[in-house]
Each structure stands twice: as structure tokens, then as C-alpha cells.
Design brief:
Order of helices and strands of chain A: EEEEHEHEEEEHEHHEHHEEEHHHH
Mean pLDDT of chain A: 95
Strand order of the largest sheet of chain A: 6-5-1-9-10-11-12-13-14
Distance between the termini of chain A: 43 Å
Oligomer: homodimer
Structural class of chain A: alpha/beta
Shape of chain A: globular
Radius of gyration of chain A: 18 Å
Largest interface: A-B, 38 and 39 residues
Strand content of chain A: 25-35%
Largest sheet of chain A: 9 strands, mixed
Number of strands of chain A: 14
Helix content of chain A: 25-40%
Low-confidence stretches of chain A: none
């Protein structure tokens, strides 16, 4: 069985949207990636760090989904990473109100022995040097390394970010970040420049406008499912990445054609994530729900034109 | 053979984009709609009005494409509608610098006898009462009436606009206009409200983010082809509508499944339109070019997931 190694945050999120607000709830990139990937019944492990304040029930939630948590360090006397944010009315932009790194400030990830030969590594959004240190611990070269990052690291650790970008196969990044990273407005040109930085595959996430997958001259586009309302976008990008990675591990096929399917699975899972606050919807998702929504994606995008 | 009746402007456009600027060149909604529809070798006619300053070569260009111009009134002593605009760097927004209605101010369209039984009527962006007067002249109820409009009429002639919207089958509108018309941010909810105003089919154009087709609970999504650069977006929306209408007339099939194809043809033609200034690219477009790009649309959007 193929293995997926996930590195990323386990966190407390406090979220305010036009639909309501929450106290501290379960959040973090690794949480959303893990929950999405667990839909594929694969051998997935999270490498992360939490404080003594992180509830055992959150850990149980993840391990009950079959996710290996032996790489999660618990600092008893420390506090878990905490993020508080408020979404604007259009749900496409948000303000960060609180960021408390806490135990994350000194996070030095240790990859469990068992996962140092994982075929797929998903580097969730973290300091690029933290992401790099995970790659250095791999004893077998992974078949695919996927990296997610954000503008914060472009602003504050660009040189380190470029170092890790050079070593990966797939980057997932949003449209504004792709523009910032390359100085190019056209996403086609931006993707080409990012290819030049290392990754053979560039996934540009456009939120409610879907996602693009570039591989040289090949392009694939997956829309976001048009929804009546987006309740809480938190974690949608990570869920997308987790769905993508999980599908690749499950199918053991890294061809462009199969990556198209992985993108569709990622979009499908992300469309559930935004329906409720935090991880709520992802915690209770049946394979029947997923099949039904994949069918919606098919009728949303598939057409029959005979070409001559 | 089915007939397409097009009503809309024939105009002079002067355009400035980050890539350059033009003097007065051929423009207007009916021009772009007609050029796109002419790709389907159907019997299409334009109802419009121009001044004595409108070059014969522009008229020849359209009639050489097989478009019937017997419904184009020429006011010898008048001047043709003139629009001057400047696009911002992102190409998604523009400022109107000059709008001279000229002969358009007193335009009272007369539908040629031969086209009063056209199966498909395409009402290009004009005053809603002008659009309505065309519908009133039809002697046979068209199988499909398509309407394009814009925020200007929502601001200045909303009551008249709602009257014509009530009588049509398909509305094409951009995302911001759909939000303005309904007061709803979610495009799914906005489309449902617009259904309630009359049109069974709602097409929401999202520019570089593609287009959505709604019919009650059925939704179809066509992306815009990711382009290295958008040279001049002028006319893209009209080209999209003209491609949609032309394909429907050609295939004589108004099922939702066939409308999906029409949307793809519309998007395909629009992707050419933006490659050069004004009508330049649309004037010289081979069916080979179109087939090749349809193939690109297929590989851009089609995937193979086996559903259980």
C-alpha cells in the first residue's frame, strides 16, 4: 500500500463569517489535508506539533479516520498554534485578527521511521525551511512531493521558499500568490515561470473560480461547484490539496490524465468543506455523498461535441 | 434553413489597452454577434442603424460573411454611434471615455419582412424598449429569444428592462450585473431569482473565469481558455453570445444538452476575439482554427472518473 506523509499545522481556529462566528475550533492545514486524504482509505501520517491544550478528542478524531499521528509532537507545557480571522462579505478576502505561533515557533519536525519511504509527501503551508527539513529526512526519493505555500513566505522568506520550490514536483498556490511570485499577471505566463523554478506541475487555485493544473503546454481546468452559499472557506485550499494527494496515492498513477481526476476529487472535497464551519462537514462525509457530488461535477463540465 | 435575427449596434470603437491603442475601428454588439454567428453558415440578418460616415468596406465585410444587412438603416446626414474606452492593467475593468449615441439616439428598428419568422432572435445590448419593439414585430413566435444587456439599463431603465426580460428565453449577463439585478451575491441564488423574472435559461458571464448556464437545477460551466495575454476584451461577450446563438440555429436543438455545446462554441469564439484589436481576429478565422481550439477546450475540461 502506498503511503502519504503530511506535514502541516494542527491548530485552533476562531472564525467569523457573515453567517456566524465560532470560538476556538479544530483547524490547521494538516487537519484539513488529513481529513480529505482519509476519504481514500490510504496509509497517511501527519507530522506536526501541538500544545498540552490540544484536546485528546481532536487527536482521536484524526486517528479514528485512520491517520497515523506518531509524528505529532505534544509539548505539554506549550500552547497550540492559534489563528483568528474574519471573512468579508464577499468571502473571498479575510482579515487575520490573531496569529499566535506558540509551539509552532520552535517546530522541528521529525518524520517517523515508517514514513521515510512514503511515495507521496504533502508539504502543507509552513516555513519553507521546515518543509525542507522534512524532505531531507526522506530515505527514499518520493514519487511526488506536493507543496502548498502562501504570500507570507514570499514576503518574509523568499530565498528559502525558492530553495524548497526547486525540490518539489507539484506546487499549489492561489492566483494572487502566483502573480506575486512571478511578477506576471497572466496565469499562463506565471505558470511557465514557476515551471522554470522547479515544479513540473503547477496548480493555481482560484477559489470560487476553480483551479488550473499546468504541465508545460498541457492545461486542465476544474471549476468550483457553484454553491448557494459558502458558509466558511477556511481549509478549502488544504482540503483540495488533501483530496488531490489522497487520490494520487490511492491510484498510484502520476500521469497528467490521472492528475486531472485528482484535481476533480480535490475540488469535490473542497466543495463540502465550505458548507459548514471548520472541519464539521469533513468529519461526516460518506462515500455516497462524494459519488453524488462527483456526478454533479460531471454534468457541470462534460459536453459532447463531435470534432471533425 | 433556420434564421437568426440579430439586433444591436454597428459602431466605431476607439480602444486603449496596455498593449496599444486604436483610432476609430469597426465595433458594435451586432458586428461581433454577426461575425461569430457567420461561422456557422446560417441565414443571419442584422437590424441596426449607422450614419453616412460608416465605411462601405465595413458593410461589405459583414455582407461578404453572408450576413443580410437589409435591416441596417443608413442615415446619410447622421453620424455612427461612437464609443471610446480604456482598459485598466488587469483587463477586467475599463473606463468609458466617450459615448456619442449619434444616430442611435433615434433608432427605431424595422425588422425586414423576411426575418419576421426567424426561429432565433438575438437582442444585443440596446435600450430595452428598442429590444422590445423588435420582438413585437415578429410574426411567428421565435423558438428562442436571447437577450444581452448591461448595468447601464438597470440604472436607467429598470422597469423597461424587466418588461423585456419577462418575454425572453435566455439572458446573458455578467456576474456583477446578475448581482446588481437581483441584490444577491451568490450567483446560484441570483440565477434562481432571474428565472423568476422570466428567462428559463440564465447565462452568467465571468470574463476570464468563464461562463455558467443555469436552467432550474441544471448547471453547466465553461471556462475561458487560459491565454498568455488578452490583447483586447472588446466584443468578447457579444462574440460569445453570437457563437451561442449561431450554434443553436445551426443545430436546431434547444435542449439543455445542446446548449452546453453552444456555450462551448461561444467560449471558443470569444477566446479568438480577444487575441487582437477589435474584429481583426474574427475577420480571419478558419474552421480549422476553430476545430483545433475546440480540441483544446476538450482537453482543458474533460476527465474520466468512473463513478460507482
Amino acid at each position: 500500500m502506498s503511503k502519504l506523509l503530511i506535514v502541516g499545522t494542527l491548530a485552533f481556529d476562531a472564525i467569523e463569517t457573515p453567517f456566524g462566528k465560532t470560538d476556538k475550533i479544530l483547524g490547521g492545514a494538516a487537519t484539513f489535508i488529513g481529513l480529505a486524504a482519509s476519504q481514500f482509505n490510504i496509509d497517511a501520517a501527519i507530522v506536526s506539533i501541538v500544545g498540552g491544550d490540544f484536546p485528546q478528542e481532536y487527536l482521536n478524531l484524526l486517528s479514528n479516520k485512520g491517520i497515523d499521528l506518531s509524528g505529532v509532537e505534544i509539548i505539554k507545557e506549550g500552547k497550540t498554534f492559534y489563528w483568528k480571522g474574519k471573512y468579508h462579505n464577499d468571502m473571498n478576502s479575510r482579515d487575520t485578527i490573531v496569529t499566535e505561533l506558540n509551539v509552532l515557533a520552535d517546530f522541528s519536525p521529525v518524520v517517523p521511521k515508517k514514513y521515510r519511504d512514503a511515495e507521496v509527501v504533502m508539504l502543507g503551508n509552513l516555513h519553507p525551511l521546515t518543509q525542507l527539513s522534512v524532505l531531507k529526512q526522506m530515505e527514499t526519493k518520493p514519487k511526488m512531493v506536493i507543496l502548498d505555500t502562501m504570500n507570507f513566505w514570499m514576503d518574509n522568506a523568499l530565498e528559502d521558499l525558492l530553495k524548497v520550490i526547486k525540490k518539489i514536483d507539484v506546487i499549489t498556490i492561489n492566483d494572487e500568490e502566483a502573480r506575486q511570485l512571478t511578477g506576471e499577471y497572466s496565469l499562463v505566463v506565471a505558470a511557465r515561470k514557476i515551471h522554470g523554478m522547479g515544479p513540473k506541475y503547477v496548480v493555481i487555485k482560484k477559489g470560487e473560480h476553480g483551479a488550473l493544473l499546468f504541465n508545460d503546454d498541457n492545461v486542465f481546468y476544474a471549476p468550483a461547484l457553484p454553491l448557494e452559499e459558502v458558509f466558511d472557506p477556511t481549509g478549502a485550499g488544504d482540503t483540495f490539496a488533501g483530496g488531490f494527494a489522497g487520490y494520487i496515492v490511492k491510484t498510484r498513477d502520476i500521469s497528467f490524465e490521472n492528475m486531472k481526476n485528482a484535481i476533480i476529487y480535490g475540488s469535490t472535497l473542497a466543495s463540502f468543506c465550505v458548507e459548514k464551519f471548520g472541519t464539521q462537514r469533513m468529519e461526516n462525509l460518506s462515500s455516497g455523498d462524494i459519488q453524488k457530488r462527483l456526478q454533479q461535477f460531471k454534468s457541470l463540465t462534460q459536453f459532447e461535441i463531435e470534432l471533425t
